[in-house]
Design brief:
The structure holds 2 protein chains of 2 kinds. Chain A has helices at about 1-30, 40-45, 85-95, 105-120, 130-140, 155-160, 160-165, 190, 215-225, 235-250, 265-270, 280-290, 320-330, 330-340, 350-355, 380-395; strands at about 65-70, 95-105, 125-130, 175-190, 210-215, 255-260, 275-280, 295, 300-310, 375. Chain A is an alpha/beta fold. The relative contact order of chain B is 0.12. The chains are: A alpha/beta, B mainly alpha.
């Protein structure tokens, strides 16, 4: 089987990085005390043997009484102080889900968990949600477990074709999509004096110092490329670097105020920023909170991203986490998440369920976008990607 | 017992041992690993090798000298402002506070019961473009119509000053409070003017506090990254932000370690120079009696 050779390569990478990481975990516990790891971290680092993922699929087992799910802010249905989806999971399986909204930025989350995952511990997490490019990195480093798809019939049957087989994980054996989102223009109509239509509006001197973009490289650079009339799927490395130069210059000139993760919601609410790049699920919520907030898909097209669930190595309740993935792939469950977060659902049959629950959403381009205008970022080689990442980090001032 | 009676020379070493062990474990060893890391090359995916790669240092200087200089300018400005605010305040509390002394000191420390991050986030709200401060400054014409405070160097320096102010006030207070009032009386008895008594008696006697306050403010301020992150923009990035992003976000441990080393070296040189000027007694906080 072609699988085995693929695994040999991955094991080799695991072994190499694990050896290097051993020394590094020690360093992090001691030299970088400033980075908030104390004696416990140091001891843990010393005791850790080389971790890394295993090629074995998650074995079937008992369903646990509890599990821990790490997710982004505002990324699941809410009713009062409860999450109906999680309560229904508990009713069905008797599992209490500890839901932690600890992720605001992919790289930041990676920095936070890397040491734990590298030493084979999930830090108590059973599920995390990160964007697909980060899912790829987690998989390459052996930080996530291989899923047993035979335990997840809903996922196998209901996954939307558009997200079912990305290049990095063609059979979705290491990641299961949670939501797909879009990068939109979000603006304060009272401060901009009207609607924004083009990504290039963000470079309009009228809005100097009131513009923010995302720290997520693919979202920001992809959008700027679209503004230049370049399709991000086919962009060359030079074109990407030029776009980064353009962003860096705008930042130096004071046109761009700063680069943000989810925290742009409070900046816009306060009026510190007036014309920004933001994510599609946040926009309706912000507009509902403040009638001056408007949002639009840019006329040049928009970037899409898919965030997926993964089970980290050492997850204490991996089998239960698989059951949870399967549970949300029931369109009757996913529809209530979609109705609340208003992202694009990765599950077939949600459209039919929405006809009953909330027909207004059927015409909403945030939930059912025009696929011709949706764009993905190109997957560059690891080396090119490292160069691009470094250039972008420089551009955003870090 | 009998061991120490036979070999009395051993006891001091034994008493020093816990301290030495602590320094070895939490200072010398980490420094060694940091030095080693700074000379490595590689990436997260290929692993890291140690190969005396000194170019990391020259590249780091070339790429980040701007942030380095900015860190010291911001930290220097914040230290001077904190001294200007802190000295009169500490003076008033120590010499004029009377029975309110302890209550006033508590007031200085009270805001710092709230965590660092929350305090800085509150400044984000206070200084917001449509906030009270900016509106007031615009109304009285100190700030142009397009003016703003948040996301400027001023906001970052103000944030650092505010966050490190107690580290300036407390040592100043301690040294001012210890001044024997009879010294000042003697000064007046000898026909010293208020100014002469201050410059020739009070100020020299409070120098240990000034030196300690300056060091306690300047050193952490130079490495701070929270204020620049929350109150600034990419144009206000300090060296701490660069180290944080290199280490946590780009997994570029070599550059992060090299930058940390250079930051330490520069601060050490500054402290030594300051010690030369101010005298080692005051550096160690010993009283200049």
């Amino acid at each position: 089987m072609s699988n085995s050779s693929e695994w040999d390569i991955e094991r080799a990478i695991d072994a190499m990085s694990a050896a290097a990481l051993d020394r590094r975990t020690l360093l992090k516990g001691t030299a970088a005390g400033a980075l908030s790891l104390g004696l416990a971290g140091f001891l843990a680092a010393c005791g850790s043997d080389s971790g890394g993922g295993s090629a074995k699929v998650i074995p079937k087992g008992e369903i646990a009484k509890n599990m821990t799910f790490s997710n982004w802010e505002l990324y699941i249905d809410v009713e009062g102080k409860k999450h109906p989806t999680l309560d229904q999971f508990q009713d069905k399986y008797g599992t209490k889900v500890k839901y932690v909204e600890e992720i605001t930025d992919n790289v930041e989350f990676f920095g936070k968990v890397r040491q734990q995952y590298a030493s084979g511990s999930s830090g108590g997490r059973d599920l995390h949600v990160v964007t697909d490019w980060m899912c790829n990195r987690m998989k390459q480093l052996g930080y996530v477990q291989k899923l047993d798809k035979s335990a997840m019939p809903n996922v196998v049957n209901n996954i939307e074709d558009a997200v079912a087989s990305p290049a990095f994980d063609p059979k979705r054996e290491f990641s299961v999509p949670w939501q797909t989102g879009q990068v939109l223009l979000i603006y304060r109509k009272d401060l901009t004096g009207g609607d924004l239509t083009s990504i290039n509006d963000l470079f309009d001197p009228k809005f100097k110092g009131k513009v923010t973009m995302l720290t997520e490289m693919r979202d920001t650079v992809g959008s700027v490329l679209l503004g230049e009339g370049i399709k991000p799927e086919g962009a060359s490395k030079d074109q990407v670097m030029e776009a980064i130069d353009k962003i860096e210059k705008a930042s130096r000139d004071g046109q761009i105020r700063k680069f943000t993760g989810n925290e742009y919601t409070s900046d816009v609410a306060r009026g510190d920023s007036a014309a920004i790049l933001g994510w599609s699920g946040d926009a309706p919520q912000m507009a509902a909170d403040n009638k001056n907030v408007g949002y639009k898909q840019p006329e040049e097209g928009f970037m899409v991203f898919t965030d997926s669930m993964q089970i980290p190595v050492g997850a204490p309740h991996a089998f239960t986490a698989e059951k949870f993935m399967d549970f949300v792939y029931d369109p009757k469950i996913m529809v209530q998440i979609t109705d609340w977060v208003q992202y694009v659902p990765p599950v077939k049959g949600v459209r039919q369920e929405l006809e009953k629950l909330d027909p207004d959403l059927l015409d909403n381009p945030l939930v059912f976008p025009d696929k011709a205008k949706a764009h993905n970022f190109k997957q560059f080689s690891a080396e090119d990607e490292a160069d691009i990442d470094a250039a972008f980090q420089r551009a955003i001032g870090a | 017992m009998s061991l120490f009676q036979r070999r009395p020379g051993l006891l001091p070493y034994l008493l020093l041992a816990p301290g030495l062990l602590f320094l070895l474990l939490f200072f010398a060893l980490p420094l060694y690993y940091m030095a080693r890391t700074s000379l490595e090359t590689g990436t997260l995916f290929t692993g890291y090798q140690f190969d005396w790669h000194f170019e990391t240092y020259t590249d780091a200087i070339k790429n980040y000298h701007e942030q380095f200089i900015r860190s010291f300018v911001y930290a220097g400005a914040a230290t001077l402002i904190a001294l200007a605010i802190g000295y009169p305040l500490a003076y008033a509390i120590a010499l004029r506070g009377g029975k309110w002394k302890n209550a006033l000191l508590l007031l200085v420390i009270l805001p710092f019961f709230v965590t660092y991050l929350i305090r800085t986030l509150s400044w984000e709200t206070i200084l917001a473009d449509n906030g009270v401060v900016v509106d007031t400054l615009k109304a009285i014409g100190l700030l142009g119509d397009d003016g703003r405070i948040l996301a400027t160097s001023g906001a970052v320096i103000a944030g650092i000053t505010y966050n490190f102010l107690p580290f300036m006030i407390l040592p100043l207070y301690a040294s001012l409070e210890r001044i024997d009032p009879r010294m000042l009386e003697a000064g007046y008895d000898l026909y010293g003017t208020r100014r002469a008594v201050f410059t020739r008696v009070t100020l020299p006697l409070s120098m240990p506090g000034v030196v300690a306050g300056v060091l306690l403010t300047f050193i952490p301020a130079a490495g701070d990254f929270i204020n620049a992150e929350l109150l600034g923009t990419p144009r206000q990035t300090m060296i701490g932000n660069v180290i944080q992003s290199r280490y946590l976000e780009l997994s570029d441990y070599a550059t992060a370690a090299a930058l940390s080393f250079m930051l330490m070296a520069v601060i050490l040189v500054m402290v030594l120079a300051w010690a030369k000027i101010a005298g080692t007694e005051s550096l160690l906080g010993a009283e200049a009696r």
